[in-house]
From TrEMBL:
The lineage of its organism: Bacteria, Pseudomonadati, Acidobacteriota, Terriglobia, Terriglobales. Keywords: Isomerase. Residues 23-243 form the Xylose isomerase-like TIM barrel domain. SUPFAM superfamilies: Xylose isomerase-like. This is Sugar phosphate isomerase/epimerase family protein. It comes from Granulicella cerasi. InterPro entries: IolE/XylAMocC-like, Xyl_isomerase-like_sf, Xyl_isomerase-like_TIM-brl. One of its GO terms (molecular function) is isomerase activity. It comes from the Bacteria.
Length: 284
């Protein structure tokens, strides 16, 4: 089982080479950079070059989580800032803003060796409709054409809205014939759906089956089944024995990226020790 670590853990801080060294000491073999301008400013040439140089000097795979916050959120961002960028908004201006910001983040792949980028479709109240399908197809088509020449594979993530369910994401990909697009299964998001009464399986097990061999990455965090908390594995109610069994049986092999809650003023070194312990527990 291969493990990665999302910089979401240190999202309140600017991502420096020193902080990257701390994250790398966790034992993870991949770092997923969370694209937020106050954290990793993908529009700043110096910041991008700095990150490219770090990956060039370290044996570590790189992936990217596309931006969720508009540029206007950067100055007063806090842990309570809700995502605002929406690639499939009903407002055309908002869709254009989200697309432009996402492309700006992807441009960093010209220097940073990102191999994958995780994409969100919609916000929390998104409804499944013909309009949502059309806007999703348009967004994926544009981003796929932009990311492909950069060597970046798009990964669609399941969310707690009516569009980005595993079943609907698979349907969108089939309609668009997006053969190169994969999926990222967020375990915490899936767990919030509880049991699938029709199949008798947990929502996590059903999501594994739905995504099938197009599944490339897991977002690993826990919750108590009520809200998206990004807790450490074992602090919530996810059945980690089941997750381990499903992960080991998956083909091709998956990268399990820990996407954990962030705090202001916390000790990054101490947090990384917790990451090492979490990786050890999950490995067992």
């Amino acid at each position: 089982m291969s493990f990665g670590l999302s910089s979401h853990l240190v999202l309140p801080q600017r991502l420096t080479p020193a902080l990257m060294n701390t994250l790398a000491s966790s034992g993870a073999r991949q770092i997923e950079i969370f694209a937020a301008r106050h954290h990793f400013d993908y529009t700043d040439r110096h910041a991008v070059r700095e990150m490219a140089n770090w990956f060039g000097s370290n044996d570590m795979a790189a992936s990217l989580h596309m931006p969720l916050f508009s540029p206007e959120d950067g100055g007063d961002w806090s842990r309570h800032t809700a995502p605002t960028l929406n690639l499939i908004s009903t407002n055309k201006g908002d869709r254009i803003l989200a697309m432009d910001e996402t492309k700006r983040a992807l441009e960093a792949a010209e220097q940073v060796p990102f191999t994958a980028a995780v994409i969100h479709l919609g916000l929390g109240d998104e409804q499944w409709s013909t309009r949502a399908i059309d806007d999703s197809l348009t967004a994926i088509e544009h981003l796929k054409a932009f990311a492909g020449p950069l060597g970046v594979q798009l990964l669609l993530e399941n969310l707690n809205n009516a569009v980005a369910t595993p079943e609907h994401l698979v349907e969108i990909v089939k309609i668009g014939h997006f053969d190169s697009v994969g999926f990222c299964l967020d375990l915490g998001h899936a767990h919030l759906q509880g049991m699938d009464h029709e199949s008798g399986k947990s929502a996590i097990a059903k999501a594994f089956a739905t995504f099938g061999d197009r599944l490339r990455e897991l977002h690993v965090h826990d919750n108590k089944g009520m809200r998206d908390e990004h807790l450490w594995p074992g602090e919530g109610s996810i059945d980690w024995a089941e997750v381990s069994m499903l992960t080991k049986a998956a083909t091709p092999p998956l990268v399990s990226v820990l996407e954990l809650s962030h705090e202001f003023g916390f000790d990054a070194d101490a947090a990384v020790k917790q990451v090492r312990a979490a990786i050890d527990r999950l490995s067992e």
